[in-house]
Design brief:
There is one protein chain. It is globular, with a radius of gyration of 29 Å. A seven-stranded mixed β-sheet has the order 3-24-23-11-12-13-14. Strands 4-15-16-18-20-19 form a six-stranded mixed β-sheet, covered by helices on one side. The protein is an alpha+beta fold. It folds into three domains: about 70 residues, Helicase, Ruva Protein, domain 3, CATH 1.10.8.530; about 300 residues, Purple Acid Phosphatase, chain A, domain 2 (4-Layer Sandwich); about 80 residues, Copper binding periplasmic protein CusF (OB fold (Dihydrolipoamide Acetyltransferase, E2P), Beta Barrel). The protein is built from 14 helices and 24 strands. It is found in: Nucleus.
């Protein structure tokens, strides 16, 4: 029941002082229209600013509020009959009363809430309003290419049986993700972070290629000089035919002036918006005729890992459910494979609960996204409990229970038994092995905007951009689907070291390529592709024997396999 003191307190917290007459009127309105104190105050504030210019709640203003807003409210009568809305549990498709609080509590593993069929399939589906949401996919179950190898790298694998030992997994650069704040900075702070990042990278490119100190854009002449800048956004369809007018923004010494860059005479170039380059050319007026471009500031690869036994890693990237159902058959089969082959590490790259899945986007699940996500992860952990398999879950901005921002904090701020959660992107440290991983499709985004006349392998070149620009996401401005916080990006999405392996899930064709300075880039594909199954990747890292030198080319094997 509404109380006068609480109404006064709600207004006071907003800096509004009520006189006794206005307070009594507010209480009367709350009682007559069955409103709690907070709802009443929120409704008043909205009305006041939209109709009264933010006026205080006097008796006259409250009467106007009642006539225009509250009089339209029809107080619902309590129904003596039970609601017809039903909630379904996936395992047996039984109806659950919505009046039971226990109906929405995920059943504990091992209880009767989980259906144990003869095939002992795990139940990853949510509580739903209609059982059709988790109807098994006939197309997926009838496929013929399961287990087919798509791509390989390195020597043939040893027998894939776990060496049954625990491996330590941590962040290469530990970051406290519990207090992340997003879009909390002024435009000036954001701009400064961008400038600092771009100028630092330009200096590193100069040092890596032993170039002369860059010249400001102000110096015209016929001599070939060294300049530096950042590629500005462009229309790829137009600029592919107009290579003499690519806009480039200078750095501090050039007062951030924008010039036109002519790359038509450059033998080999590959550029994209946001790319930091150092180039040699001739400046004439507002146009620079480039002769040679430098865009790579590749660092040395991380030191060799200290592993004493082979480390086996299985990598799968979401989405994990087919687009027409939430039965999660591909994830079920993946867990069966993991239990059979027992790799040391299972890396699951989000999204686990895909916000873009039609069934989820249409609001057809009957529990919170957080409860659904937690229950799914717990069942994965329980299924692998006792097998000495570490599960790594990489966050995704597409997870329905997570923040739609990049970089993305872990969806869960604690660990389950054998499951650890990491942000997106992450540099993982596994017994000295450095593994870079992100859930954002940076390869596809770069490919949409890249202009190149190179004859090299396109997929390897796109991955090399990330290593050369020392960033998990070097494209700027980002694609619209990537809600990027620049300050967090400058802190969390940069490569402080060249990893041994880069895991870059993409909608592009799966591949395994060795790129600059001994780094392997791997696109495991997605576990599902619409209505059909996709692919996952297996990685085996072998230790050094005797006096041999450890190299990714000779000590890392990998293959991409269809689920």
């Amino acid at each position: 029941m509404p109380e006068l003191s609480e109404i006064v307190s709600q207004f006071t917290s907003l800096g509004i002082d009520l006189d006794d007459e206005a307070a009594a009127t507010c209480l009367d309105l709350c009682l007559r229209y069955s409103l709690d104190e907070e709802s009443f105050v929120n409704s008043w504030i909205a009305f006041s600013f939209s109709s009264l210019g933010g006026a205080d709640p006097s008796k006259e203003n409250l009467e106007a509020f009642e006539k225009k807003e509250l009089a339209n409210i029809k107080t619902p009568k309590r129904s003596s009959t039970a609601s017809h809305l039903q909630v379904y549990s996936t395992g047996s498709a039984k109806q659950i009363s919505v009046h039971s609080a226990d109906s929405f509590t995920p059943p504990r593993p091992g209880t009767s809430g989980i259906s144990h069929t003869s095939s002992k399939k795990l139940n990853f589906s949510p509580l739903v309003f209609t059982p059709e949401v988790y109807t098994p996919s006939e197309k997926f179950n009838g496929r013929k290419n399961s287990g087919q190898t798509v791509s390989t790298l390195g020597k043939s694998f040893y027998e894939w049986k776990s060496t049954a030992y625990d491996v330590n997994i941590s962040m290469y650069n530990p970051t406290d993700t519990s207090g992340w704040k997003f879009f909390y900075d002024t435009v000036m702070v954001t701009s400064n972070h961008l400038e600092e990042r771009f100028e630092f990278l330009a200096d590193e490119i100069v040092a890596a290629n032993n170039l002369e100190k860059p010249t400001p854009f102000k110096h015209c002449g016929l001599d070939v000089m060294t300049f530096r800048g950042r590629i500005c956004p462009y229309d790829k369809a137009k600029k592919s035919k107009q290579l003499n007018s690519i806009e480039i923004q200078g750095m501090f010494e050039s007062d951030y002036a924008v010039m036109e860059l002519d790359v038509s005479e450059v033998d080999n170039f590959a550029i994209f918006p946001g790319q930091v380059i150092v180039f040699e050319g001739v400046l004439v007026g507002k146009n620079i005729r480039a002769k040679k471009l430098y865009s790579s500031a590749v660092q040395k690869v991380a030191p060799p890992p200290t592993i004493q036994k082979p480390v086996q890693i299985l990598v799968a990237a979401g989405p994990f459910a087919l687009s027409d159902t939430l039965s999660y058959e591909p994830l079920n089969e993946l867990i069966d494979l993991v239990k059979k082959d027992q790799p040391n590490i299972l890396v699951l790259v989000g999204p686990l609960v895909d916000a873009t899945h039609p069934k989820i986007a249409q609001g057809q699940i009957a529990e919170t996204f957080s409860d659904y996500y937690s229950r799914m992860v717990q069942r994965i952990g329980d299924a692998l409990d006792g097998l000495k398999i570490k599960v790594v879950v990489i966050a995704s901005s597409k997870d329905a229970n997570n923040l739609p921002v990049f970089p993305t904090p872990p969806a869960v701020d604690h660990s389950y038994k054998n499951v650890k959660f990491f942000p997106d992107p992450s540099l993982l440290f596994i017994e000295g092995l450095v593994l870079g991983v992100t859930s954002v499709d940076a390869l596809f985004h770069l490919g949409k905007h890249e202009l190149s006349n190179c004859q090299t392998n396109r997929l390897a070149r796109l991955a090399a951009h990330m290593v050369g620009q020392r960033s998990f996401y070097p494209l700027y401005p980002p694609e619209p689907e990537v809600c990027m916080d620049v300050v967090a990006w400058a802190r969390q999405a940069q490569l402080s070291v060249t990893p041994h392996i880069m895991i870059l899930p993409s909608d592009l064709h799966g591949f395994i390529k060795e790129v600059d300075s001994g780094c392997i880039s791997l696109n495991p594909g997605k576990l599902t592709k619409g209505l059909v199954g996709g692919t996952y990747a297996l990685i085996e890292v072998r230790p050094v024997h005797s006096d041999e030198e450890w190299k990714v080319s000779s000590h890392v094997s990998s293959k991409i396999v269809r689920i």
